[in-house]
Design goal:
Helices cover 49% and strands 14% of the residues. It has an eight-stranded mixed beta sheet with strand order 3-2-1-4-5-6-7-8, with helices on both faces. The protein starts with a strand and ends in a 15-residue tail after the last helix. This is 3-hydroxyacyl-CoA dehydrogenase. Keywords: Oxidoreductase. Pathway: Lipid metabolism; butanoate metabolism.
């Protein structure tokens, strides 16, 4: 397992590429938009340099890691020698299926195909390929270089060998892993979406301010980040897509808060747009 490809250079994709390069993988980061690749390259270089200046990394580690990352807009180039591909695009089933079909055609037969999804079915995605036993979900957390966990979610036909190889990749990335049998929302997203949605309902109902809701969760329940802060970090559009999927698959208790829907319609998407439940 030497060659790791990441498809999608957004917040999650660039974060996965960052830790993979530090972990010693030969990394290809692919995105169809050259502009996105340039932003990802700048982000990775700046964040690694900051970490070295603070003493978390050595400058030699940074130099070696940056040499390990290759940027390309061509999926064929990124996939042709991959041992594992981690897809990290938007939470849209149609898009993920389309990418997996292409990867199945382009990648070597031994390549593991992983999706970084927080809610969606790896079984459904894998069924569109000729290698469902080599497909798995690897759910990373944001920010990837700081968060210690990867959820490994088995699809219906995911092999034991694939799970073990995914665990080995996680270990090489310096992460802890938990193994989960597929069910909508897995473990963390089911819990997190409920907490976040209830926080939004509290805000909408005027029970407390966003600041005080988050403060109560941090100081009263020892959460490292408040649920509204976290939703802004993840992106309110992403959270809404997750909630809509869970509502569709798990029922009424996951109905998205009307305030979340309103904010997304208004373009208040959180940190990335400059405004969400807070101003940035």
């Amino acid at each position: 397992m030497k060659n790791l490809t990441v498809v999608g250079s957004g917040v999650m994709g660039r974060g996965i590429a960052y830790v993979a390069a530090l972990g010693g993988f030969n990394v290809y980061l692919q995105d169809i938009q050259e502009e996105n690749l340039e932003k990802a390259k700048t982000y990775i270089e700046v964040e690694m340099t900051k970490s070295a200046e603070k003493g978390f990394l050595t400058f030699a580690q940074v130099e070696n890691a940056l040499k390990n990352i290759h940027y390309t807009s061509l999926l064929e180039t990124a996939a042709k020698e991959a041992d594992i591909v981690i897809e990290a695009v938007f939470e849209l089933m149609e898009l993920k299926v389309e990418i997996f079909k292409k990867l199945d055609e382009l990648c070597p037969k031994h390549t593991i195909l992983a999706t970084n999804t927080s809610t969606m079915s790896p079984t459904e995605i894998a069924a569109q390929t000729s290698r469902p036993e080599k497909c798995i979900a690897m759910h990373f957390f944001n920010p990837v270089h700081k968060m210690k966990l990867i959820e490994l979610i088995r699809g219906l036909e995911t092999s034991d060998e694939t799970v073990e190889m995914a665990k080995a990749v996680g270990q090489k990335l310096g992460k802890e892993t938990v193994e989960i049998n597929e069910f909508p929302g897995f473990v963390t997203s089911r819990m997190n979406c409920l907490i976040g949605n209830e926080a939004m309902n509290l805000l909408m109902e005027g029970v407390a301010s966003a600041h005080d809701i988050d403060k109560a969760m941090k100081l009263g329940l020892n959460h490292p980040m408040g649920p509204l802060e976290l939703a802004d970090l993840v992106g309110l559009d992403t959270r809404l897509r997750n909630m809509e999927y869970l509502y569709k698959t798990l029922g009424e208790k996951y109905r998205p808060c009307p305030l979340l829907i309103k904010y997304v319609k208004a373009g208040r998407l959180g940190r990335k747009s400059g405004a969400g439940f807070y101003q940035y």
